[in-house]
Amino acid sequence: MTEQPPEPFAWRFCPICGKALAHDHDGQSAQPHCASCRRFYYLNPVPATCCFVARSDGALLFARRAVAPCKGRWCLPGGYLELGETAEEGALRELREETNLRASRVRLLGVSTHPSPVSGAVMVLGYVVEDWTGLGGMRPDTDASELRFFRLEERPALPFAVHRDLLALYDRENRGRG
Ligand SMILES: [Zn+2]
User: From 76's CA, which of 8, 18, 39, 96 has a CA 20 to 30 Å away?
Assistant: First the structure.
């Protein structure tokens, strides 16, 4: 499955006052600007996280998506960051919400940025979860309909390029171990 390029979209109206925006120079480049609110609007990649949760035999945890896009496909657990939390807190929150697993320690594996048809572009920070517990109480919730640990040879194809990038990085890092 190939990823479609994002639909081009742009700010046209001020989300605060509703007036039409006009391009103005912000000191570096011309950007959509509301003259009434004296505010520029930008499109940026949206930060998200994903989690690598490995069993002692090396099998990795995947979550089947309960929501669009790619509903029904297996992915790494994770999601978008919320305002007011750090990336590490966001990764741990998503893990708790989707799996009911508990953890407090994550290690940054790497970062991947790709076009996204939903947000324009997404920037995903991949975290290795180092101290997870609660396997007996593991259950899918919120964005996940099913959870399963997959061994290397049985892993499903991932629909998101950001996850594929980070999984390849994870495998490179773990090659030769175990
Ligand atoms: Zn405005």
Answer: 8
Catalytic hit among 85, 130, 146, 173: 146
Kindly give the distance from the C-alpha atom of residue 43 to the centroid of ligand 1, in angstroms, as a whole number: 16
Cα 6 to averaged position of ligand 1 atoms, centre (Å): 26
User: Which is the CATH superfamily of the domain at 46-174?
Assistant: Nucleoside Triphosphate Pyrophosphohydrolase (3.90.79.10)
Residue 85: active-site member? no
Query: pLDDT tens-digit profile of 100-110?
Result: 999 999 999 99
Q: How far apart are CA 89 and CA 45, in angstroms?
A: 19
* Strand pairing category for 60-65 and 106-116: unpaired
Chain region(s) in the chain for CATH 3.90.79.10: 46-174
Rounded distance from Cα 27 to ligand 1 centre (Å): 19
Determine if the pTM surpasses 0.85: yes
Give 129 Cα–ligand 1 centroid separation in angstroms. 42
* pLDDT tens by residue, 53-68: 999 999 999 999 988 8
The DSSP string of 108-152 is EEEEEEEEETTTEEEEEEEEEE-S-B-GGG----TTEEEEEEE-G
